[in-house]
Amino acid sequence: MTAEVEQVSEVFNTILVLDFGSQYSHLIIRRLREFNVYAEMLPCTQKISELPFKPVGVILSGGPFSVYEEGAPHVDHDVFKLGVPILGICYGMQELAWINGKGVGRGEKREYGPATLTVEDSTCPLFEGVDHSQVWMSHHDKLHALPTGFKTVAISGNSPFAGIAHTEKDIFGIQFHPEVTHSLQGKTLLKNFAVKICKATQNWTMENFIDTEIKRIRALVGPSAEVIGAVSGGVDSTVGAKIMKEAIGDRFHAIYVDNGLMRKNETVQVKQTLDEGLGINLTVVDASKQFLDNLKGITDPEKKRKIIGNTFIHVFEKVATEIKPKDGSEIEYLLQGTLYPDVIESISFKGPSQTIKTHHNVGGLLEDMKLKLIEPLRELFKDEVRHLGQIMGIPEDLVWRHPFPGPGIGIRVLGEVTPEQVKIAREADYIFIEEIKKAGLYRSISQAFAALLPVKSVGVMGDQRTYEQVIALRAIETTDFMTADWFVFEAKFLKNVASRIVNEVDGVARVTYDITSKPPATVEWE
Ligand SMILES: Nc1ncnc2c1ncn2[C@@H]1O[C@H](COP(=O)(O)OP(=O)(O)OP(=O)(O)O)[C@@H](O)[C@H]1O
Ligand SMILES: O=c1[nH]c(=O)c2[nH+]cn([C@@H]3O[C@H](COP(=O)(O)O)[C@@H](O)[C@H]3O)c2[nH]1
Ligand SMILES: NC(=O)CC[C@H](N)C(=O)O
Ligand SMILES: [Mg+2]
Fold first, then answer.
1. pLDDT (tens digit, 9 = 90+) per residue, 430-456?
2. Does the interface predicted TM-score (ipTM) exceed 0.90?
3. What per-residue string of b and e applies to 155-184 under the rule 16 or more CB within 10 Å gives b?
4. Which one of 245, 346, 376, 495 is separated from 138 by 20 to 30 angstroms, measured CA to CA?
5. Helix (H, G, I), strand (E, B) or coil at 126
6. Is the pLDDT of residue 310 over 80?
7. Which of 236, 339, 371 maximizes ligand 1 atoms within 8 Å of its Cβ, making it the mutation to test the pocket?
8. Alpha carbon of 405 to ligand 3 centroid (Å)
9. DSSP-derived 3-state class of residue 433
């Protein structure tokens, strides 16, 4: 069955980005997709004979290494046998030069920041519309000589080889980074490469994606099997559920787990929106006791996350055995709302990044998991998922909902999670979000919540001494959640929220506002 299932990269003309570990590698993919060309990233160590698809062009990314160093990563030379255009960016260009003559070494000084490009060969299609524009440099090494078979096509003040091209083949190298927005015509250059040179079709649209994905799921699941889905009411899993529903109708069973760590009124609202609003029949499983029992006495954040992740899986496996598909088979698949950033993180050449915290991911935590995963969004970025949600008729409110982590309030009550502590955090959170919505700020903020700190502080209310806990409010602005800054509220707004929380929520003596960016902090407190 699986062999006949076409992958997205087989359906859309795909540009392959081979990642040498640059912090900007994923931006190359973002930029290409912005003009509707599909791109995927694989580690630079990928063996070309084992490529899962045939790309229409290859981009070699930048990277932190020096090509001449021992142990530096190198591309499989079979990449030249693919017969498709190749573009090397920074380290990628140095790699092309290393392979074709070894004329690469350390420059006298580092070049980091803006430079102006002068195109010397106006016939080179890569640089059409890019002449005299600002480009962004970030390198220490440089080409000391033109590689064999290449000519210079562009220069900058500091880089006599800012752009090079092979004299016969469609192979190009650039020293700057077209993928960052500081390279003002960088997107034009990438478009020239993908569309003019590689002739990639610009058909990567969410409308086309839906059709492809629905076909893919039908082929994968077959004509009679049934599937369960972990659906939280967040935008990712709701869009995933909607796609499943369109693909296999009532053979899809959406399961929402009330883990006792959800926000106020959330379970009722999610059930209503999915059932009535979207026609997705949602089963609510109340497992709150199981989660809270398992969390008893646990204060270590990582242990809490693992316990919550494992409990989710146990709940899903149990639910899966309770559903009896009409064709007499057993439930084999579990839908999950994994996005491309999660995938990139795990395939990156640098390997899985150091674990800052274990993100709960329904599939990620049990090695002997029986259910196989269906992840329809695993090629998409969050804004693509939001766009998809809009096309599929998912209500605006849900499309723009702030992300809510799987472990929920469990990682927003610092220290031991008890029903009493969850209640305090939940009530405070509700007031904060209510005020944000009232002030018309919800869409300007990427994510906001209240965390409960298990420290006591003295206060005075109605002439009485109080000795209660502290709420920390957090609101951030970010595009990708990898870095974030705190949101600047007016003092009046914070004053009102603080006063409401202390007055209306029993157990809180003080309210603080978290003004730490990420890094050095993270978004969540645990
Ligand atoms: N309470 C829950 N019940 C069922 N599944 C859940 C629950 N919480 C999380 N999940 C599953 O875990 C996945 C990861 O959670 P995550 O919060 O990243 O995504 P989301 O909730 O779909 O969207 P968002 O990031 O916008 O909150 C979800 O896509 C969903 O499959
Ligand atoms: O589904 C999730 N499961 C998790 O375990 C988890 N931990 C953090 N987050 C969300 O990820 C984003 C970045 O959060 P951090 O800076 O705290 O890592 C923020 O949006 C966080 O809310 C999670 N989402
Ligand atoms: N950004 C890059 O790709 C840098 C490449 C190489 N490490 C240099 O310093 O030149
Ligand atoms: Mg969520």
1. 999 999 999 999 999 999 999 999 999
2. yes
3. bbeebebbbbbbeeebbbbbbbbbbbeebe
4. 346
5. helix
6. yes
7. 236
8. 36
9. helix
